[in-house]
UniProtKB/TrEMBL annotation:
It is found in: Cytoplasm; Nucleus. It is an enzyme of class 2 (transferase). GO terms for biological process: cell differentiation; methylation. This is Protein arginine N-methyltransferase 7. It catalyses: L-arginyl-[protein] + S-adenosyl-L-methionine = N(omega)-methyl-L-arginyl-[protein] + S-adenosyl-L-homocysteine + H(+). Its EC number is 2.1.1.321. Residues 176-348, 498-671 form the Protein arginine N-methyltransferase domain. Arginine methyltransferase that can both catalyze the formation of omega-N monomethylarginine (MMA) and symmetrical dimethylarginine (sDMA), with a preference for the formation of MMA. Specifically mediates the symmetrical dimethylation of arginine residues in the small nuclear ribonucleoproteins Sm D1 (SNRPD1) and Sm D3 (SNRPD3); such methylation being required for the assembly and biogenesis of snRNP core particles. Specifically mediates the symmetric dimethylation of histone H4 'Arg-3' to form H4R3me2s. Keywords: Chromatin regulator, Cytoplasm, Differentiation, Methyltransferase, Nucleus, Repeat, S-adenosyl-L-methionine, Transcription, Transcription regulation, Transferase.
Length: 672
């Protein structure tokens, strides 16, 4: 059977019908999965193994048979650890079919066929009894069902069910316990991901300040967690206001309740400041004594020797509904609330003792101003970037005249407001704002002269930014929209940005390479089947794809100079033919070529450009500084070359890049 799915092409904007291959989603999921990253997480693996060995020993010491339930077995790794540690039998549950199939193969290859039964079900569908999936209840419960927020992948309901139906009372659990920690901080940088700061516009008749409406000011934002590599946040970007405190602890060896709950912790500010952000992370104790601990604590909390890079578990940033001034030594109360899958926080000043003891449950935050639904966190950060705004203002001033008729094509853009404050008379926009700015609710190709009051557009602007963009070149939609509205443009129209350029650079990643690199063996177990499966999925449809990553979170060093590879002239319409280029870049530094990074630079006007990628190469080692608001495209090479000696410096990477103007797709090929 063939299924066709409709979607709007992110680059061309065209509605298109894609033949949905039922395997396509599987392959995407496997190719982009975190399994490899987990298997590269040595710290996690070693500690699980220690915890599992200890649990099996405790059961054996009691003279019992060790029957293990491994929920979410993935590759079967934790079950194989248990079997090696002497467990009598393991039930390995995996809901994701391709992984369950892989687990069967891996278990067999490693010689555990008699000890491990892989069950391709959701744990809540597993049955126990003589005719059931499991012969009897297990006495060791092993899982790894945690995400950065701990409970976001449904660990709590899964545990709740398992204790009721699948394991014995008094069972051993690995991990034994999880603890969630918080720390209160002030951070202009992080707060800028949640609130729109006043925008300063230097107009000819003096400075004007654009402030956000009060409904936006007071909006609590969206509840979804903001998970980041907090270890990449320099300490100069935030001020610690409290010590680290525990908010929740879950004992996985006892019945678990998943129902919503809240608790309140007392904090004594160590510094006066504005409480804006709650930083949070967790740790897991693999055994009851707490001797085998695996922690996500950031660099300023734990010693660097304990550091393990990982991307499958990071740290959380929670935004308080409003900023609250706190005074050093004056106690405040933080209410932590959770439902089955997520957490959120609220700060209260200390009042009467009674009230402080009360268990106050606050509602999960809901955005009422719409802005948090339109703009994601990096987009808020981008709009709050005064430096960037200044570049747009300077550029707008160069193209705007008092009688300009402007059209803006961008999602949720402030350009019309800026242009208005800079004196543009009329502004049309394919979205918000009233009076001087008219919002046209139509697609570019359906724009009619009547929408524009029969006027011709003299200035066409865009950031460009579109919420549908994932990869840098998806914002070329601006070019397609510009092409669609051509008949409405005056002959001497000014287009801002006037062009865009795709840039490329070869890099060595400090850590990100792990997420796409084969594992071979993991703690002595052969997991190559997974490597093969991932490789097969990456080559599905014979096209390796670039993937978006916010590189400020993933340090890398440049091995080549950055190079412009393609240019897109927005003053002209999109050409019929493809744009392609071939060339080579020299490798300038020693290192491993893990892949190429690609990003866009927009030439707003002749001499003003903004980069959505590389900001600068900060030292002779080639360390890179990236635009903190944008994701860059990363194309991982299928094999890594290492240039060891400077004599290799003549080595070059050749590339062929093709932009298909019909499909809006960029295909690339690199030869090392
Ligand atoms: N245990 C493996 C894999 C962990 S990833 C390891 O430690 O390396 C978590 C896996 O659990 C995923 O493959 C996911 O599909 C599966 N999973 C999550 N919840 C589940 C549930 N309730 N029942 C069965 N599988 C589940």
């Amino acid at each position: 059977m063939k299924t066709f799915c409709g979607r709007a092409n992110p680059t061309t904007g065209a509605m298109e019908w894609l033949e949905e291959d039922e395997n396509y989603d599987y392959h995407q999921e496997i190719a982009r999965s975190r399994y490899a990253d987990m298997l590269h997480d040595k710290d996690r693996n070693v500690k699980y193994y220690q915890g599992i060995r200890a649990a099996v020993s405790r059961v054996k010491e009691r003279g019992e048979k060790a029957v293990v339930l491994d929920i979410g077995t993935g590759t079967g790794l934790l079950s194989m650890m248990a079997a090696s540690a002497g467990a009598d039998f393991c039930y390995a549950i995996e809901v994701f079919k391709p992984m369950a199939n892989a687990a069967v193969k891996i278990v067999e290859k490693n010689g555990f066929r008699d000890k491990i039964k892989v069950i391709n079900k959701h744990s809540t569908a597993v049955t126990v009894g003589p005719d059931g999936d499991m012969q009897c209840r297990a006495n060791i419960l092993v899982t790894e069902l945690f995400d950065t927020e701990l409970i976001g992948e449904g660990a709590l309901p899964t545990y709740e069910h398992a204790h009721k139906y699948l394991v014995q009372e008094g069972c051993e659990a690995v991990p034994h316990r999880a603890t969630v920690y918080v720390q209160l901080v002030e951070s202009k940088r992080m707060w800028s991901w949640n609130k729109l700061f006043p925008v300063h516009v230097e107009a000819e008749d003096g400075e004007k300040i654009i402030v956000s409406p009060s409904e936006m000011e007071n909006c609590p934002g969206v509840p979804s967690v903001c998970d980041i590599q907090l270890n990449q946040m320099p300490s100069s970007d935030f001020t610690v206001l409290s010590d680290v405190v525990t908010v929740f602890s879950v004992d996985f060896s006892k019945p678990v309740r998943s129902a919503s709950t809240s608790c309140r912790v007392q904090l004594e500010p160590v510094k006066s400041g504005k409480a804006q952000i709650v930083l949070s992370w967790w740790d897991i104790d693999m055994d009851p004594s707490g001797m085998i601990n695996c922690t996500m604590a950031p660099y300023w909390v734990k010693s660097t020797s304990a550091f393990q890079w990982r991307d499958h578990w990071m740290q959380c940033v929670y935004f308080l509904p409003n900023e609250e001034p706190v005074l050093k030594g004056e106690k405040v109360y933080l209410t932590a609330c959770r439902d089955e899958y997520s957490l959120w926080y609220k700060l209260q000043k200390a009042r009467g003792e009674e009230e402080n003891k009360a268990d106050v449950c606050v509602e999960s935050p809901v955005c009422w101003c719409q802005a948090h639904l339109l703009w994601n966190r990096p987009r808020f950060g981008e709009l709050n970037d005064q430096n960037r705004t200044r570049q747009y203002i300077k550029s707008l001033m160069k193209v705007l005249k008092t009688d300009s008729i402007c059209l803006c094509i961008s999602d949720g853009s402030l350009l019309p407001v800026l242009a208005h404050y800079l004196g543009a008379k009329r502004f049309f926009k394919a979205n918000h704002l009233e009076d001087k700015i008219k919002i046209i609710e139509t697609r570019p190709e359906l724009l009619m002269s009547s929408h524009l009051e029969d006027k011709k557009i003299s200035v066409l602007v865009g950031e460009p930014f579109f919420t549908t963009s994932l990869l840098p070149w998806h914002n070329l939609y601006f070019w397609y929209a510009r092409t669609a509205v051509t008949s409405h443009l005056a002959s001497n129209v000014a287009v801002l940005p006037q062009s865009a350029a795709l840039h490329m650079m070869i890099v060595e990643f400090q850590d990100l390479w792990r997420i796409r690199s084969p594992c071979g063996t993991c703690e002595g177990f052969d997991v190559q089947t997974l490597d093969d499966m991932i490789k097969n999925s990456m080559n599905f449809r014979e096209s390796r794809e670039a993937e978006p990553h916010p590189l400020w979170e993933y340090p890398c060093k440049s091995l080549s100079d950055p190079q412009e590879v393609l240019r897109f002239d927005f003053r002209e319409t999109v050409p019929e033919h493809s744009l392609s280029t071939e060339g080579s870049v020299n490798l300038l530094r020693k290192g491993k070529s893990h892949g190429a990074v690609l990003w866009m630079e927009y030439h707003l006007v002749a001499d003003i450009s903004i980069s959505t990628g590389l900001m600068q190469i900060s030292n002779e080692k080639g360390n890179c500084e990236w635009n903190p608001h944008c994701k860059q495209a990363v194309y991982f090479f299928s094999s890594v070359i290492e240039s060891e000696a400077l004599s290799d410096l003549h080595s070059a990477v050749t590339y062929a890049i093709n932009f298909n103007t019909k499909t809006g797709e960029i295909a690339m090929d690199f030869k090392l």
